[in-house]
Amino acid sequence: MIKLFNRNQNSTNETGPGKVIALMNQKGGVGKTTMAYNMAHALGEMGHKVLCIDMDPQFNFSLLFGQDSDSERGNIHHLLINSVRELKALHTDTFLSEAIIKTDKGIDLIPAGQELSGFELSVASINAPRQLILKKFIEQNNLRSMYDYIVIDGPPTLGLLVVNILCACDGVLFPFIPDAFSEQGLKNIHGVLEDIEDMGIVSAPKVLGYIPNLYENRRKKTKEDFEAIKAIFNEGTIFEPFANKASFAKSMANKKSVFDYKANDYKELQGQFLTVARSVESQLGQMQ
Ligand SMILES: Nc1ncnc2c1ncn2[C@@H]1O[C@H](COP(=O)(O)OP(=O)(O)OP(=O)(O)O)[C@@H](O)[C@H]1O
Ligand SMILES: [Mg+2]
User: Which residue, by CA, sits nearest to atom 30 of ligand 1?
Assistant: First the structure.
């Protein structure tokens, strides 16, 4: 059985009441970006002011917000590098106010860029704690005062970007496809959470729950794998599975959230996302 972490319930954030959550899994294609996008919109529907941060060099999250791959707009990579004094030689004239993309839904985004794939190398030589760069960036810019929720989309890797995300967030959601590969990806991320706890510098984020995705109801193997994974992660909330649905893929292809549609199929998905969002709200609401 995997050990879960109960983040110190009394831990306070000096820089504001906003909460930071991340969608993580080392395994690719499990729905991290899809869930991050729809969770941001679910929290927005609940009246929260939401900032999304794309921390994946593939910048799929940014594409959903209409960002072009060849955009010259500054991105999170530039902002993070600019936030480290020791890296003065690499600083650019990117400002947060210019990098942020605002939508008519009141959900903002700091986009990613391909440069992010060189992040680890760029910060390799600094003396300041490399794993806390994102956390400090959020603090320096008072983002927790400006937003109720900051939703981070993580890359399908285990490296410095992932450690930065886990050190910066209060809670983490794990989308997964019920199969053996995802099981391994989840175990590996739990290993990183343990490493963070062992470092003793910051508390590991609270595990907010697991989101089974691309669930094939009619496949016996899916059910078996799902039961096996449930037995391993039986301490955290396991949300109701999201089925493999064409309507879901269609909304993503149209760069829309499920809240942009009225059909019954989407109503069901809206309900599922609101359930996850309410659970996040109540779990993190206990933290001051
Ligand atoms: N429940 C679902 N039903 C149908 N299609 C889905 C569902 N969930 C996700 N998809 C589709 O699966 C693909 C992968 O999803 P997504 O990009 O969100 O995964 P990811 O974990 O972010 O991938 P990566 O690791 O590459 O960042 C996308 O094309 C998405 O539209
Ligand atoms: Mg993704």
Answer: 249
Q: How confident is residue 15, by pLDDT bands cut at 50, 70 and 90?
A: low
CATH code for residues 19-285: 3.40.50.300
Residue 3 has pLDDT above 70, yes or no: no
φ/ψ region of 45 (left if φ > 0, alpha if ψ in -120 to 50, else beta) reads: alpha
pTM: 0.93
- How far CA 253 is from CA of 53, 68, 246, in Å, comes to 20, 15, 10
Residue 149, helix vs strand vs coil: strand
More confident residue, 284 or 236: 284
What length is written for the chain? 288
Q: What is the distance in A from the centroid of ligand 2 to the CA of 61? A: 7
Question: Hey, where are the domains in the chain?
Answer: 19-285
User: Is residue 183 in contact with ligand 1, taking CB distance under 6 Å?
Assistant: no
